[in-house]
Design goal:
Layout (H helix, E strand, L loop, with lengths): L2 H26 L11 H14 L2 H33 L4 H13 L1 H40 L4 H47 L1 H48 L1 H7 L2 H37 L1 H15 L4 H41 L50 E8 L9 E8 L4 E5 L6 H8 L7 E6 L2 E2 L5 H4 E4 L8 E2 H5 L8 H11 L2 H7 L5 E2 L6 H14 L4 E5 L7 H12 L4 E5 L3 H6 L2 E6 L2 E5 L1 H7 L1 H12 L3
Helix pairs in contact: 1-5, 2-11, 3-4, 3-5, 3-6, 3-11, 5-6, 6-7, 6-11, 7-9, 7-10, 7-11, 9-11, 10-11, 15-17, 20-21
The structure holds adenosine-5'-triphosphate.
């Protein structure tokens, strides 16, 4: 195997290890703080170390060519000083011209060095791009195989990583290597030249240089973090705008205009705050640039009388200014500007390859949009997305499938001073689970549904879907939430039923109609394609339409918040059985004892106290459940 191929295999193995590492972390929760750097810069630096170690040879070769740049810089200032002191000021013009000719001739090897540097640069830059592309491909494959991500959004992200983002990383890295290398060798040449002219010059020039560079380096981690925040805010705002544009009809129909505007304003405020914060740090950076770029020359001017008194010659002074103005200054400026722009982008992009991936929200289907399955809140996030894979069982693997949904010590209150509705609640729903939630009015059942569905954000603890933090997944691809009063829009019954899954086939539609008990509605309306006026449907018929819609989806989590309250017990039982026959987990907020009886498990909510068990166990263990069961059985229907 050639060294090249050997290295490629190493990079591929590295990508593979990374993928497995990420998957492991996803399954087993956060990595302990001492192992996982908290900042993007820290994570990227950790990942960069083995990459650079493996390319020590390429770095040394690059350094070898760059030595010519050191020589050119050194000769540039030194020759000017000698031309003045030994030539023109000493009355010997030929000597002065000879020194200047030497300075000019140093440019020739430097031009050769540039050629050599560019040839060697590829050894450092191309493997990074190749490694990133492999890593992105491996992650996409891993995702596809484990089914932990959803829909087209994920693949779009992978394509962007393989093409656009890996190119940004490659260009940024190449620019950074060039500028850093040039700065190191130019600075070394200039400092060596200053020391050769007079060591006193170093006393004046080095302190502001070190101070400015130190200040600049200190701005790097906060700048990278602010840049990341800004990018995140920008992407979220753009995603919100996209969803709004695609769902104008629903927003108008659901009366969610005010809420949508408020959401957009919140996004705009967040983005503005991120931009202001970024600008503040940019101002600190300008100060740092001024300190190391301008202060050395200013101090040199101020210190000229003292330096001259201590034996500095006129030629050495001009030589020193030549170093500052022609070599050190431009190299420093190029480096700091590049680190500040391409460097920041590089860190952010590389962190996306190494850290958890932001999941784009799946697109809203343009046709037949319009429903309020996400409950009274009616958020934009609740508008439909579609994932053909989301409801499928996990690909066969050695590890158990992750829970469909999980609450880990979740607390929730409607305001900072409000009484908590949920208090450190743990709940796990696995594929195939049927959980009924019962409790008196105001005990928090709808709140639980909203938190589990991602409509409300918990004030403590964590909501997880499919083994990942819920915030990383597109809600509509994971769960369908049916409220008590569903929204049915003007159109046809077919459009309404297909709303969450526009590509559902006719035979699937027919199976749903039969399973949910929609035949009388179809008959009364005159067929699936007859015009439907929502005002002419009874509340029970509206609920049946929404239940049919949910039956057709492939979302692995179904949450029914008293979604069958307008049906008679027989119709309710039929719809619940049909929904229980889907793949995935179902949580039903029970309206009658029948729902609890049919469920395998029941969660009894009594304020922030909860008890979970089978219906038979709870009759024994929970006085509240006995009481509810007794009351319900006396008032059937
Ligand atoms: N948007 C809100 N703002 C403030 N408090 C709220 C809000 N929604 C619900 N609450 C309060 O939170 C508590 C739990 O309400 P929730 O609607 O979750 O209970 P529930 O068990 O579903 O009641 P019901 O059976 O009557 O629907 C109640 O005290 C309620 O007043």
């Amino acid at each position: 195997m050639t060294a090249e191929a050997d290295r490629d295999v190493g990079v591929a193995a590295e990508a593979d290890r990374h993928v497995r590492g990420t998957a492991e972390a996803d399954r087993e929760g956060p990595v302990p703080a001492e192992r996982e750097p908290r900042t993007a810069l820290g994570r990227v630096t950790r990942e960069a170390r083995p990459f650079l170690r493996a390319r020590t040879g390429a770095i040394v070769r690059l350094g070898g060519w760059s030595l010519l740049e050191f020589a050119q810089t050194f000769v540039g200032g030194f020759a000017v000083a000698r031309a003045l002191d030994d030539g023109f000021l000493a009355g010997s013009t030929p000597t002065g011209l000879a020194w200047l000719a030497l300075a000019a001739s140093a440019a020739l090897p430097a031009a050769l060095a540039t050629r050599g540097v560019f040839a060697r640069l590829a050894d450092l830059v191309e493997p990074l791009r190749d490694g990133l592309v492999r890593r992105a491909s491996a992650r996409a494959l891993h995702t596809a195989l484990t089914g932990t991500r959803t829909g087209g959004g994920a693949s779009t992200g992978s394509v962007s990583q393989v093409t656009h983002q890996s190119e940004i990383a490659r260009d940024g890295w190449a620019g950074l290597v060039l500028a850093l290398r040039s700065f190191v060798f130019t600075a070394a040449g200039a400092l060596a030249g200053l020391a050769a002219l007079s060591p006193l010059l170093l006393l004046v020039v080095v302190p502001p240089l070190v101070l400015g560079i130190g200040l600049f380096l200190a701005t790097l981690p906060p700048m990278a973090a602010r840049q990341r925040d800004y990018l995140g805010a920008d992407e979220d705002f753009a995603a919100h705008a996209g969803r709004t544009a695609a769902a104008l009809r629903d927003i108008a129909a659901a009366g969610a205009a005010d809420r949508t505007v408020a959401e957009a304003e919140a996004h705009a405020r967040r983005q503005a705050a991120a931009a202001r914060s970024l600008a503040r740090w940019a101002a600190v950076r300008i100060v740092a640039l001024a300190v190391c770029g301008r202060l050395p020359a200013l101090l040199l001017l101020l210190a000229t009388p003292w330096l001259m008194r201590n034996g500095l010659t006129g030629g050495a002074l001009v030589g020193a200014f030549t170093y500052l103005g022609h070599s050190l200054g431009p190299a420093l400026h190029a480096l700091l500007t590049l680190v500040g722009t391409a460097g920041g982008r590089l860190v952010v992009v590389l962190d996306r390859f190494t850290g958890p991936v932001r999941l784009p929200v799946p697109p809203v289907p343009a046709a037949a949009a319009g429903a309020r399955e996400d409950g009274p809140a009616g958020t934009l996030d609740g508008l439909p997305g579609r994932s053909p894979k989301a409801g499928r069982p996990q690909a066969p693997g050695r590890r158990p499938a992750p829970a469909t949904a999980e609450l880990r010590s979740v607390s929730f209150a409607y305001g900072p001073a409000a009484r908590p509705v949920l208090d450190r609640l743990d709940l796990t729903l696995r594929p195939g689970d049927r959980l009924a939630v019962v409790g008196p009015s105001g005990s928090g059942k709808s709140t639980l549904a909203a938190v589990l569905a991602g409509v409300e954000t918990p004030t403590g603890g964590e909501v997880r879907w499919l083994g990942r933090p819920a915030r990383e997944l597109a809600p509509t691809a994971v769960r369908t939430l049916l409220p008590q009063t569903p929204y049915v829009f003007s159109g046809t019954l077919r459009e309404n039923l297909r709303y969450l899954r526009p590509e559902a086939r006719d035979r699937e539609l027919a199976a749903t109609v039969a399973a949910i008990g929609l035949d009388p509605v179809v008959e009364r309306l005159g067929g699936l394609d007859a015009p439907l006026d929502p005002r002419r449907l009874s509340p029970g018929e509206r609920q049946l339409v929404a239940l049919g819609r949910a039956h057709l989806t492939t979302a692995p989590l179904l949450i029914l918040d008293e979604a069958t309250s307008e049906l008679d017990p027989a119709a309710e039982a039929r719809a619940e059985r049909a929904l229980a026959g889907r793949a995935g987990a179902v949580l039903i907020i029970a309206h009658r004892i029948g729902s609890a009886d049919r469920a395998a498990r029941v969660l009894v909510m009594d304020g922030t106290r909860t008890v979970e068990g089978t219906p038979a166990e709870l009759l024994d263990r929970s006085a509240l459940f006995r009481d509810l069961a007794g009351r319900w059985s006396r008032t059937p229907g």
